[in-house]
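Protein modeling request. Please complete all fields; requests missing the sequence field cannot be processed.
Requester role: graduate student
Desired output: 3D structure, token encoding
Chains: 1
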Amino acid sequence: MKDFKDKIVFITGGASGAGLGQAQVFTAAGAKVVIADMNRQRLNEAIKSGAADYAIKLDVTDRKAFAAAADEIEKVYGETIDLLILTAGVNTFGPAEASTYDDYDWVVGVCFGGVVNGLVTFVPRMIKKGKGGHIASTVSWGATEAGPSTAPYSAAKAGVLNLLESYYNALKPYNIGVSALCPANINSHIYEAALNRPENLQNTGYNVSEKTQGFLASIHKNGLDPQVLATWLKKGIEDNIFLVIPYDQAPRMIEIQYERFRYLTYPGGEADLAAVRATPERQAESGKMAAIREGYDVRAAGPIVPPPDADKDAPPPVFNFDTGGFGMAKSDLDFVDPSKKYNG
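Delivered output (344 residues):
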């Protein structure tokens, strides 16, 4: 898809963060952008600002509501969409062993289930329209590596990445492209999600509070600008790229990220991998790339050091190292290693 003028675009999670940036970029490209989100106030603000053409309040885990949204778009515009961007997502952090059914049902339900619902709802309609098109999802760098404190999120995102590759191959005969956008840190409000979980999915094994989410907000503040991220996605769609990694060093980043599997196939492989990662050359290279992805030097033990390509005249980011027990388990879990629990 090269020309976005008058194309109908549907973006979930479109009222803030990455989704809002996408709405702004594709609206500027001349598309008719429809955004969906759970937050009615932010939807209204996005429409008022001119970021999008139309807004629908939508819970992406509600399949009937998804179908109703698709019907509403067809009623308003006379046909179904040309470009589907599935960006809605949530996250929460804590030791994998502390995870509850609710932690999985909530995170996987939104991050993976929301994508499934979007695909099952819109793919048949796009095929029947017969004009080709494109599908994209804001996945995550977290899809490329499992984290001991991000089990539900990493699993969901890895599942989405695999799922999209299936559709990438399946939809080629219909001239429908598929892209997986995999950023790391984004300047967004996703940190608010853990404080606003559905009432029926409140049972978590993680330590979550205003303080932990404030710490997370201080990290996201240094992340990639949503409009810059959306520009990467737009270029990826134009070039029909499947894996859109929004950094100039993308091929090398992916090469390093997935090399671990080769070492995990034989006894002693983990020690060999550790030796490779411990070399000064690899540490310098990996550290630089991590700084670029996160927006700060992740190895710093004080105020964040800006990445190597940052504006040298800009003041260093302010970072709050009082985490409030971020990423730890609830203190009342008697089976979790005490070093992984917050007892403040």
